[in-house]
Amino acid sequence: MEAAGSRALKGLRILVVEDNFMIASSLKRMLESWGCDVVGPAPSVEEAEQLADQCDLSGGILDINIRGGTSAPIAERLHNRGLPYIFITGYSSPHLLPDELLKAQRLHKPITDAVLRSVLVEKFLGR
Q1: Residue 8 CA from chain centroid, whole number
Q2: How far apart are CA 126 and CA 45, in angstroms?
Q3: Cβ-based burial of 61 (10 A; exposed 0-12, middle 13-18, buried ≥19)
Q4: Beta bridge partners of 86
Q5: Which residues contact 85 (CB under 8 A, 6 or more apart)?
Q6: How far apart are CA 7 and CA 88, in angstroms?
Q7: Do 57 and 78 meet the contact criterion of CB atoms below 8 Å apart?
Q8: In which element (H, E) is residue 117 found?
Q9: What is the percent of the chain where pLDDT is above 90?
């Protein structure tokens, strides 16, 4: 099933919003190993907003607390375009998010490849 899930992700264009270089690099490697096209990683609100507005995307993986604030405006842009997204965070409390985003799926760092792949298949492909 893992291989099938990885094959199913091939060609997805995923916006990665993460300001920690090591985590961003790890996410990028994982996604590319599954055949995804990575947009970003964007380390700041400003850069992420620009990519979310200008790029053809399948969805996003958004660190909640990033340089310049939170990724809430990026989540809202993706939501308004009908695109799936997940939050990743190193914090246990979602206090940084506005109320309307509290129901969005969150994964806690560190994230294993198996968990991320499973969530992406379910959330982005509806399986």
Answers
A1: 17
A2: 28
A3: buried
A4: 61
A5: 15, 59, 60, 61, 62, 74, 75, 78, 79, 104
A6: 23
A7: yes
A8: helix 113-125
A9: 69
Residue 4's pLDDT is 54
Per residue in 64-83, pLDDT (tens digit) is 989 988 999 999 999 999 99
**C-alpha dist (Å) from residue 72 to 7, 19, 55, 84, 93:** 30, 15, 18, 14, 15
Q: How far is CA 113 from the centre of its chain?
A: 13
More confident residue, 53 or 7: 53
H or E element that contains 38: strand 37-42
Domains recognised in the chain with CATH numbers: 2-125 (3.40.50.2300)
Task: Give the 3-state secondary structure of residue 60.
Answer: strand
Distance CA 38, CA 29 (A): 9
* H/E segment holding residue 88: strand 85-89
DSSP string computed for 1-29: -HHHHHHHTTT-EEEEE---HHHHHHHHH
Q: How far is CA 106 from CA 55, 62, 89, 100, in A?
A: 23, 9, 7, 14
